[in-house]
Specification:
The complex is a heterodimer of chains A (123) and B (106).
Chain A lengths: L2 E4 L3 E3 L5 E8 L8 E6 L5 E8 L4 E4 L8 E5 L4 E6 L8 E8 L10 E4 L3 E5 L2
Parallel strand pairs in A: 2-11
Antiparallel strand pairs in A: 1-3, 3-8, 4-5, 4-9, 5-6, 7-8, 9-10, 9-11
Chain B lengths: L3 E4 L2 E4 L5 E11 L3 E6 L6 E5 L3 E2 L7 E14 L8 E7 L5 E2 L3 E5 L1
Parallel strand pairs in B: 2-10
Antiparallel strand pairs in B: 1-3, 3-7, 4-5, 4-8, 5-6, 8-9, 8-10
The chains are: A mainly beta (123), B mainly beta (106).
Chain lengths: 123, 106
């Protein structure tokens, strides 16, 4: 079964760092882009960025460039989203999702989604 | 960046009704357009890719069309299990989601 399994919910304080994960299985992890999508409480979906695990080529939405870092470790089929200094406004559900086609340019629908990781930032 | 404006933000319809949601891109795009369904507490689900292609396993009452700047998503006969929020997404360049349409049963 093709799936993405994300790490568990996190509760952090402002200023702390955090790295959440997304592990792929059931397919060749290195050949599909992985996107990260934010959903703030009660709000819509926001595309944050994307990475190609085969060569770690990462691209960011201008809204998130410099705010987060997207990375991947292809040896363990895992993508990551990390913050160096969290803010209360980072409180949200974060989803990873896979591009629909292998070897695509990244211009693709997202067909497999993780279950989401809830990040709560509060003092 | 290419923005997408989705409308309406919410709608209420009866079981069996035809439901239409539209998205307008800020500039013309090719067929790099998808539609997703999100039920409360769940991850989004891909329904339509490349404007009009139905994802495997998705019921045929869902469809998509459009070109240039105007794209449409249709549920031909609304069912109770279709209650959800629907999002459009362009991926001509940096992907961008529309604001969502919450669909409720009247």
């Amino acid at each position: 079964e093709v799936q993405l399994v994300q790490s568990g919910a996190e509760v952090k304080k402002p200023g702390e760092s955090l790295k959440i994960s997304c592990k792929g299985s059931g397919y060749t992890f290195t050949t599909y882009w992985i996107a990260w999508v934010r959903q703030m409480p009660g709000k819509g979906l926001e595309w944050m960025g994307i990475i190609y695990p085969g060569d770690s080529d990462a691209r960011y939405s201008p809204s998130f460039q410099g705010q987060v870092t997207i990375s991947a470790d292809k040896s363990i089929s895992t993508a990551y989203l990390q913050w160096s200094s969290l803010k209360a406004s980072d409180t949200a559900m974060y989803y990873c999702a896979r591009s629909r086609r292998a070897y695509s340019s990244g211009r693709d629908g997202l067909d497999i989604w993780g279950q989401g990781t809830m990040v709560t930032v509060s003092s | 960046d290419i923005q997408t404006t989705q409308s309406p933000s919410s709608l209420s319809a009866s079981v069996g009704d035809r439901v239409t949601i539209t998205c307008q891109a800020s500039q013309g795009i090719r067929n790099y357009f998808s539609w997703y369904q999100q039920k409360p507490g769940k991850a989004p689900k891909l329904l339509i890719y490349e404007t009009s292609n139905l994802e495997t396993g998705v019921p045929s009452r869902f469809s998509g069309s459009g070109s240039g700047t105007d794209f449409t998503f249709t549920i031909s006969s609304l069912q109770p299990e279709d209650i959800a929020t629907y999002y459009c997404q362009q991926y001509e360049n940096l992907p961008f989601f529309g604001g969502g349409t919450k669909v409720e049963i009247k």
